[in-house]
Design brief:
Trna Endonuclease, Chain: A, domain 1, 5 helices
């Protein structure tokens, strides 16, 4: 009887112990869930904060980009006016007299001459044309003049010749000149090699760069 009672009490105690362990495990599980929930909330809060920070940074970058675009558009938009002022500066710098010294009898000029020949897909603009009877000097003006600009102008001169023949059927001879406030290295040499005069800014005036020995202006 005593042994049976001991066994019963032992079993009962074991059940009680298991119950205590289960309750403790349950409490630990709930505590763990709570801690994990707190950690989850913390992580979510951090992510939300980081997301807000990135959004603010993106918005700031977009605003800076918009500002740069606006400034660029303003600069590009004002380019024509700057070129126009440079043409005025050339005329004020007595560019006609400069070509007189080279033997041209230019006595008149045309600014911003637009030309177009739709059937051949030809269109363009000449910044300045100096007139000398049967010769006209077509001038391309750039703030910064590079070799690529000279190449494009040569093609423009060819198109203008086609346009002039179709439009006026005249016998005018055309020669070209390029002008720049800033001229990259090698441009003057390249222009002379292609029979173009080069006009540079010199102090408050403009000068025609002397061509190399044997230089002859190309006619179109």
């Amino acid at each position: 009887m005593s042994a049976q009672q001991l066994t019963y009490e032992s079993v009962l105690e074991l059940i009680r112990e298991n119950s205590r362990e289960m309750r403790e495990e349950h409490r630990e599980f709930r505590r763990s869930l709570k801690e994990q929930g707190a950690e989850f909330d913390r992580l979510m809060k951090n992510q939300a904060t980081e997301f807000d920070r990135r959004m603010q940074e993106t918005e700031r970058q977009m605003q800076e980009t918009d500002l740069r675009i606006k400034r660029t558009n303003e600069e590009v938009g004002g380019l024509g006016n700057n070129v126009g002022r440079m043409v005025e500066h050339m005329l004020g710098g007595r560019i006609l007299d400069k070509f007189h010294a080279l033997g041209y009898k230019v006595d008149d000029y045309t600014r911003n001459h637009h030309f177009r020949l739709s059937k051949l897909g030809i269109r363009g603009e000449i910044d300045l044309i100096l007139h000398d009877g049967d010769i006209s000097i077509l001038i391309e003006v750039k703030l910064m003049l590079d070799v690529a600009d000279v190449r494009k102008f040569i093609e423009k001169l060819k198109e203008f010749r086609i346009y002039a023949d179709a439009r006026w059927k005249d016998t005018t001879r055309y020669i070209g000149a390029v002008a720049g406030a800033v001229i990259e290295e090698g441009v003057v040499k390249f222009a002379h090699e292609n029979g173009l005069y080069t006009i540079v800014q010199s102090g408050e005036a403009v000068e025609i760069v002397p061509g190399p020995e044997g230089f002859k202006a190309r006619e179109w």
